[in-house]
Amino acid sequence: MEAQLSALKQEVLEKIQAASTVKELQDVRVAYLGKKGPITDLLKGMGKLPAEERPKMGALVNEMRQEVTAVLDARMTELEAAAVEAQLANETIDVTLPGRPVQIGNHHPLTKVIEEIEDLFIGMGYEIAEGPEVEKDYYNFEALNLPKGHPARDMQDSFYISEELLLRTHTSPVQARTMEKKKGEPIRIICPGKVFRRDNDDATHSHQFMQIEGLVIGENIRMTDLKGTLDLLGKKMFGSNREIRLRPSFFPFTEPSVEMDISCFKCGGSGCSVCKRTGWIEILGAGMVHPNVLEMAGYDPEKVSGFAFGIGAERIAMLKYGVEDIRHFYTNDMRFIQQFERTEG
Ligand code: DAH
């Protein structure tokens, strides 16, 4: 039995040596020192020994068990330490490595144009107003003095959704909505937003684009107020040397109606390819709010008057940044978009 014991001890020690992970070593502990292991079996088998040999054998088995346990515990401490170290090495962050460069975004050119215009008007006490892109025929046309069947509706080819609903063709319906809400109170608003027209896309046409509408209503608002305001706008967007001129035009919602040109920022007025040799560049439409429009929204045209204007944001951005194709604004080619500097704030 002593020989059996020493062979067993040899075997366990070898297994302990061979175990290379905590898990393997735990398996060795269970297999040899556990309740169902060979050492327990040995102790159980002692009953068959002659009585005088039992104490000696008992002592030997216990001694062997203690020795094996000590070796195993020591090895376990080693393997556990190694496991912790491996995990730490795995999770270490080298703080001396250079960081990944953060890509700083920039504003879309249309956003820049719109924000610049908003800033100018907010500085003069205007409020920003918005309206729905899916609009009622009433606000898009009728309330703007364009009754059903009016020929001027053809100036703006429309996407109808139902008999009464369409994608708004301009931001002017926000005028009618705001007047209705303000119920006779004075108004100073600027309304940026998307508009839609049934146009075939090409270098200068897009079925979707951005407009900025302006509206002022109050007592004694005159054409000269409109002219002064547009002069400021022209100078803010294209430089303080710009002059403006107003040409007679037609819009159903204004009377009189005008189109505004600025003196060419490229040639200063002498004539070049940007201004088509005229010295002037067309910028926007405007006019004095038509009495019918005031009346339909509940304002008394005998007591108040107003002016309005509508700007195409893409047109301003194309002129300002020299963009030759309107589709660049919507195709999201990063090489195009990244050319515009980030605006602060
Ligand atoms: N709504 C016009 C358009 O889309 C632009 C416009 C012209 C707006 C004159 C106005 C205005 O407010 O007074 O073509």
Strand count, sense and barrel status of the largest sheet are: 7 strands, mixed
Assigned CATH class of the largest domain: Alpha Beta
User: What is the correct CATH architecture of the largest domain?
Assistant: 2-Layer Sandwich
| Ligand species | 3,4-dihydroxyphenylalanine
Number of helices: 12
Provide the CATH superfamily of the largest domain.
Answer: Bira Bifunctional Protein, Domain 2
How much is the average pLDDT? 92
Our measurement of the CA-to-CA distance between the termini, rounded to an integer number of angstroms, reads: 89 Å
- Low-confidence parts lasting 5 or more residues at pLDDT below 50? none
**What's the total count of β strands?**
9
Output the strand order for the largest sheet. 1-4-5-9-8-7-6
Strand percentage: 15-25%
Gross morphology? rod-shaped
H and E string: HHHHHEEHEHEEHEEEHEHHH
Query: What is the domain tally?
Result: 2
Percent of residues in helical segments?
A: 40-55%
* SS-derived structural category: alpha+beta
Oligomeric state of shown chains: single chain
Radius of gyration: 43 Å
CATH topology of the largest domain: BirA Bifunctional Protein, domain 2
